Amino acid sequence: MAETVLEVKDLSITFFTKQGALPTVDGVSFTLDRGETLGIVGESGCGKSMTVNGILQMVPAPGRVTGGSVKLAGEELVGMREKELCKKRGQDVAIIFQEPMTSLNPLMTCGRQISETIQAHKKVSRREADQRALELIELVGIPMPEKIFHSIPGQLSGGMRQRIVIAMALCNNPGVLICDEPTTALDVTVQAQILGLINELKEKFGTAVIFITHDLGVIRQMADKVLVMYVGQAVEQVDAKELFDNPLHPYTQGLMRCIPGMDGGDGDLHVIDGSVPMLYDLPKGCLFAPRCPYADDRCRGERPGFYGAGGHRVRCFRCESMGEEGSR
Ligand SMILES: Nc1ncnc2c1ncn2[C@@H]1O[C@H](COP(=O)(O)OP(=O)(O)OP(=O)(O)O)[C@@H](O)[C@H]1O
Ligand SMILES: [Mg+2]
Questions:
Q1: Burial 218-232 (b: 16+ CB within 10 A, else e)
Q2: Around Cβ 78, how many Cβ atoms within 10 Å?
Q3: How would you write the pLDDT of the chain (328 residues) with one tens digit per residue?
């Protein structure tokens, strides 16, 4: 039996603004097993980062989690006291952001930052923590680890900094590693190296990974299963192989056409006409209807639920004949 490390059920996040209560994340559900990678993909502003903020209980004001449940290794995080949550973050679940400097202190040596993170969660001596930090720097493929241990982040390239962030994220061997566009700021060669490293470490430690990107090409390299998001909602959820073989939601099909080398894909990022609607001015029917080549009157007047079969969930009336597909 696969061991479920994270179970997110009907997670909803609302931002309370002058324009009203905005449904930034609307009923997102998924499970993640040990060693499994979930890819979350969607255009900018679709709620990918908010979803993981919601998992970590770190939604910035004026937003907050307004519904649902997040169970990390069976323990409910929604409603947990901040002190307890702090223990979980960095120990049981860690996050890597797009820009490594978000996570690094520019004034402290790389080695010390890692060893401090170790000491924040474990009772070990400074010497032991430093030793472990050095091993981690080596583990993430940094040449001359001793030298880098004593360097400050500013002396490193972007790719090397991101390796340090990965070392820091993994230092307490978390069950879940969240990667929020960790390679978007890097050039293509370095991006490939970092993706390779994340996959390698995941294999080694059995870490479950949530990988966020707007690039389905990256999803293809990284994910076992995929959640496609559009305006705060999951619109398609399925195993990665099935998604690429048989994308069913017109939005996913549109994203596919953005991947160079895919069938009909020309790499044009603006291939889906129109733009993501504003949360304060959502269409009445299907959220994708204004941009959808197949939309009819029903799509424009009514919100679709989830349809599908065999664990393939699609929020589109065109899949209605496949039957209702509930939460997994
Ligand atoms: N303080 C805020 N008040 C109102 N809405 C907000 C606030 N912060 C974020 N949002 C909204 O939350 C939505 C989801 O944002 P989120 O950062 O999760 O998107 P994303 O999918 O991660 O996009 P990107 O690919 O650009 O990182 C956006 O539409 C954004 O406008
Ligand atoms: Mg984001």
A1: bbbbbbbbbbbbbbb
A2: 16
A3: 679 999 999 999 999 999 999 999 999 999 999 999 999 999 999 999 999 999 999 999 999 999 999 999 999 999 999 999 999 998 899 999 988 888 999 999 999 999 999 999 899 999 999 999 999 999 999 999 999 999 999 999 999 999 999 999 999 999 999 999 999 888 889 999 999 999 999 999 999 999 999 999 999 999 999 999 999 999 999 999 999 999 999 999 999 987 776 655 555 555 688 899 999 999 999 999 999 999 999 999 999 999 988 899 999 999 999 888 764 4
Is domain 4-92+174-322 in CATH 3.20.190.10, yes or no? no
Report which of 45, 3, 1, 52 is spatially closest to residue 22, judged by C-alpha positions.
45
CA distance 112 to 32: 32
Ligand 1 in reach of 48 Cβ (< 6 A): yes
Mutate to test the pocket of ligand 1, among 14, 50, 99 (most ligand atoms within 8 A of CB): 50
- Is the CB of 45 inside a 6 Å radius of any atom of ligand 1? yes
User: Residue 322 corresponds to which tokens in the numbers above?
Assistant: 């496949």
Q: Which is nearest to 300 in space by CA: 317, 283, 314?
A: 283
Q: What is the pTM of this model?
A: 0.94
- Sole residue written with tokens 């169970």: 71
Domain ranges across the chain:
4-92+174-322
Please count the other Cβ atoms lying within 10 Å of the Cβ belonging to residue 136: 25
Ligand nearest to the CA of 213: 1
- Atom 27 of ligand 1 has which residue's CA nearest to it? 44
Name the residue with tokens 């820009």. Answer: 99
Check if 46 has its Cβ closer than 6 Å to any atom of ligand 1.
yes
DSSP-assigned letter for residue 278: P
Which one of 28, 43, 46 would you pick to mutate in the ligand 1 pocket, going by the greatest count of ligand atoms within 8 A of its CB? Answer: 46
